């Protein structure tokens, strides 16, 4: 069992090395190859000694990776979201945009995604929204790195589903990270939730039960 885990880590390392090589080639074509290119990692702009994805350790060592338990500002648990009103909840059937513009809607929808084991889609979308509000370059780079590790890396348990085109865009954007590094990825996940999860949410017992609870008259005192 231990040898199988080691082999899996080696295969994962090879995948990331190939991705790093493609990024370096792109950077070389742009005439911007870093002097420490031989040591570049999947986050070519970060310190490789802290990069977890290219390091294969022995079975007795612990892989130092983020716990992914941080919560971006503005990202609350569903239970902490504002209570929906009957008018607000009814409007969610009009469009997915109505859901996403409502704090209560995002909370209820996220709770539904949790039951479908796809809550990471909403978490990623919210993290991107918070990233776009940031203006400090150092903070932006740190948030970009954290979002990559939490939602883009194939080693993350919260990896979101993105096609190869978008992943290539991300790799290019990682050369010079900005608050818009993940714009294409965020749009693709938004579309995925809109086309796939949103119809099921509107037809779910969770939404039906919510509407019933909002339509019931309050108990007399």
Kindly describe this structure.
Residues 95-211 form the RGS domain. InterPro entries: RGS, RGS_sf, RGS_subdomain_2. This is Regulator of G-protein signaling 20-like. With 221 residues, this protein is mainly α. The chain has helices spanning 2-29, 86-91, 96-101, 103-115, 119-133, 137-152, 164-173, 183-202, 205-215. The N and C termini lie far apart (63 Å).
In what range is the share of β-strand residues?
under 5%
Number of strands: 0
Gyration radius from CA atoms, angstroms: 21 Å
Distance between the termini: 63 Å
Helix content percent band: 55-70%
Number of H- or I-type helical stretches: 9
Biggest β-sheet description: none
Protein name: Regulator of G-protein signaling 20-like
InterPro entries: RGS, RGS_sf, RGS_subdomain_2
Organism: Gouania willdenowi (Blunt-snouted clingfish)
Pfam families: RGS
Explain the layout of strands and helices.
Elements: H1 2-29, H2 86-91, H3 96-101, H4 103-115, H5 119-133, H6 137-152, H7 164-173, H8 183-202, H9 205-215
Helix pairs in contact: 4-5, 5-6, 5-8
List keywords for this structure.
221 residues, mainly alpha, 57% helix
What's the quick description here?
The chain has 221 residues and is an all-alpha fold. 57% of the residues lie in helices and 0% in strands. It has 9 helices and no strands.
